[in-house]
Amino acid sequence: MAFRQALQLAACGLAGGSAVVLFTAVAVGKPRGGGDVDTRAAEPPAWVGAARPGPGVWDSNWDRREPLSLINLRKRNVESGEEELASRLDHYKAKATRHIFLIRHSQYHVDGSLEKDRTLTPLGREQAELTGLRLASLGLKFNKIVHSSMTRAVETTDIISKHLPGVSRVSTDLLREGAPIEPDPPVSHWKPEAVYYEDGARIEAAFRNYIHRADAKQEEDSYEIFICHANVIRYIVCRALQFPPEGWLRLSLNNGSITHLVIRPNGCVALRALGDTGFMPPDKITRS
User: Fold this and answer.
1) With a cut of 70, which residues of the chain have pLDDT below it?
2) Distances from the Cα of 11 to the Cαs of 15, 18, 99, 286, 287, in angstroms?
3) Residue 103 bridge partners (DSSP)
């Protein structure tokens, strides 16, 4: 079993173009102000799901789309043997690769009293133009744009869409900004557990809904754009790579940045770019 897991990890690393060291997805307790270290594993929030694998073990069925898991073996006709099973498995196997581009919204007026007043700044509009130009220059056939329903994400989408004519767009509340899970190490804000309970379940739902291997019916590789928020993107990256999701706040993303995830037909995930803004002049780069 250990040898098989090692081969599986190596295959995932090579599929992404480089070997990726995977860390445990279970947070280890640490003292909060003195005392002995508590080495017991912290309980994950309910919305994260079942217990995650141990150190260095890639869960190949992380998106619950592993072909074998989609077949009810109890209903299999024993007399038909392995040939029928192989045929049924092939029916459920993904054939295409999904390229997911996660775009953080541009700079906005943070002092707006209402969410609708938090519109893009003049610089933010420039950033969105630059991001749109960058995406267009890639020469990819983008399939769709899914964006957060918050004002700053909608306005960023409006500008980027001008550079990608013909690409359909869909708005969703699932990608709205929020506090996905209590970060480790902790921070002074977002203290009430209710915030994590409400936002975390929604953001986890966004991950499960949008981040998975291609459907078995998909014949060609797809290129999809998701325009949303820093916290959402950081959490999605940690979950997709099976890193501890509590570490999301350790990542930093610039406004208008591009994060590129690749999901292979076998379920392996690679991070091609994280928060790329190399296409922007230095004086246009912000993180507010």
Assistant:
1) 1-55, 72-86
2) 6, 10, 18, 37, 35
3) 227, 258
